[in-house]
Design goal:
The chain has 15 helices and 3 strands. The protein is mainly alpha-helical. The longest helix has 21 residues. The chain is elongated and about 75 Å long. It starts with 8 loop residues before the first helix and ends in a 5-residue tail after the last strand.
């Protein structure tokens, strides 16, 4: 069935049948996650950023621990970066944890500690893109906007026989036409479960727009291991890192320089060993 704007009774019937199918699947296969039990906008923002490129099952425990330690924007904004990264460890892409804290600081400064309500305001925050600026008000406020992630893109392409290379704006338009008004939160949860459980990438052969390369031994793997070593120590000698990761084929010092440029790590002279260099997590005071 080819998707077209809902301009006729026939097309309205197709859309209603599709909605019924998705909701029926959801009623029988609904997954339970802690973030689905809350509508606090801060908590939803945390879960949405944690869920970026990370499986929901892995996020569940981290989300609960995070909310226990950083229950609100102010607590997160005032924490040390080292503590933030320690708790983020295991979710991958540590820069996301750093950006999340930066985001909290911006919210404190510009929005009085309250996570913004509109996609336009949310998109001005660090680490908030086209999908997340919509998904936060969808799940927190049941706002009638369509948020398209990898799962939802795949569903729309497959169910409505769209070309796999359909531009984003066409997929977004289709998602907006399919959205049942007043049911945005439940609708998006239903689509997520349908795509994750039933209409998978393996089943459809529809590839995500960005495909992750092999992780083990990759530059990102070395970067993650290196940052984990630094986070676990108050400070670690550069010489120690060089001995342990000297075989890194991606340029060890290039990776370290990248961490320094991004504001995650400081490289300084050792106070106890003249000429020695140490690496430590950057600490910034508000």
């Amino acid at each position: 069935m080819v998707f077209q704007p809902v301009s006729s009774e026939l097309h309205r019937q197709k859309v209603e049948l599709f909605r019924e199918k998705i909701f029926n699947f959801y009623r029988l296969n609904k997954r339970s996650f802690p973030w689905r039990e809350c509508t606090d906008r801060y908590a939803v923002m945390i879960s949405e950023i944690m869920l970026q490129q990370t499986q929901a099952e892995r996020v569940a425990g981290k989300f609960l621990a995070w909310m226990d330690r950083f229950p609100d924007t102010e607590t997160l904004a005032s924490a040390s970066l080292r503590e933030v990264l320690l708790l983020w460890s295991g979710l991958g892409y540590n820069s996301r944890g750093q950006r999340l804290q930066t985001c909290a600081k911006v919210i404190m400064d510009r929005f009085g500690g309250m996570v913004p309500t509109t996609p336009e305001q949310l998109k001005t925050l660090p680490g908030i893109g086209d999908y997340t600026c919509r998904s936060i008000p969808v799940f927190a406020d049941n706002l009638d906007v369509a948020a398209v992630d990898t799962n939802i893109r795949r569903i729309i392409i497959h169910e409505f026989a769209l070309p796999e290379d359909s531009p984003k704006h066409k997929i977004q338009f289709a998602a907006e036409q399919l959205l049942p008004k007043g049911q945005s939160r439940e609708w998006h949860n239903a689509l997520m479960d349908y795509g994750s459980i039933h209409l998978t990438s393996r089943k459809t052969g529809i590839r995500p727009l960005t495909k992750q390369s092999k992780f083990q031994g990759s530059k990102r793997w070395y970067r993650g291991r290196l940052l984990k070593e630094i986070v676990a120590s108050e400070a670690i000698f550069l010489e120690e890192i060089e001995k342990k990761y000297g075989s890194c084929p991606w340029g060890l010092h290039e990776i370290i320089d990248g961490l320094v440029r991004e504001g995650l790590v400081d490289e300084t002279e050792s106070p106890s060993e003249p000429g020695g260099r140490v690496l430590k997590i950057r600490e910034e005071q508000r």
